[in-house]
Amino acid sequence: MRKVILNLAVTLDGYIEGPRGEYDWCLTDNDYGMSAFHERIDTILMGSTSFKMLIGFGAPYPQYKLVVASATLDTHNFSNVTVVRDDIAGYVRKMIHEPGKDIWLWGGAKLFHSLFEQKLVHELMLSVHPVMLGGGTYLYPRLKDRKNIKLTNSITYPSGLVQLYYNVTGR
After folding, report:
1. Which residues fall within 8 angstroms of residue 167, CB to CB, at 6 or more apart?
2. Rounded distance between C-alpha atoms, residue 129 and residue 162, angstroms
3. 170 assigned to some structural domain
4. Is 37 helix (H, G, I), strand (E, B) or coil?
């Protein structure tokens, strides 16, 4: 079974973007394990806001299949992109049983929360950056109940970034 892995940058106070959508606080001076992570995946899952940001950078990861959860996204010009307009959880349930590598849940706090509550996120790979924003998009909106997770690894970098790896128990 393939795993859905949330891999993203987060501030020490739990935000994934600043109040104006900024992410200029993300450290980019090191690989921070991303090359090895890219070897594990063949699919990237994201919401429409993250997809729009990604296409602003140019061709979105042509080597991967991209799955975008959006009821409103207009057409796009990328052959590697599939837009899922409804029942993203059902689509993900099907995807994890198909052959292939793991799936990177790349962005979207709403998408993460929805899939997490439905037990469709298997691992967390959080790059905790040594900054506090005090506002913005919070990674963990109000959860319905307690979530048990298990730390499997941590790496501390000279920059102050700490990479935390968790298995989400019972998933």
Report:
1. 122, 123, 149, 150, 152
2. 7
3. no
4. helix
164 domain residue, yes or no:
no
The strand pairing partners of 68, in sequence order, are 46, 83
Per the structure, the count of domains in the chain is 1
In a domain, 171, yes or no: no
CATH of residue 13's domain is: 3.40.430.10
Alpha-carbon distances of 7 from 71, 75, 145, 157, 163, rounded to whole Å: 24, 27, 22, 17, 10
Question: pLDDT 10s per residue in the chain (171 long)?
Answer: 999 999 999 999 999 999 998 999 999 999 999 999 999 999 999 998 888 888 887 767 889 999 999 988 876 778 889 999 999 999 999 999 999 999 999 977 889 999 998 999 999 999 999 999 999 999 987 778 888 899 999 999 999 999 999 999 654
Residue 150: give the domain boundaries. 4-156
In angstroms, rounded to a whole number, what is the distance separating the alpha carbons of residues 5 and 7? 6
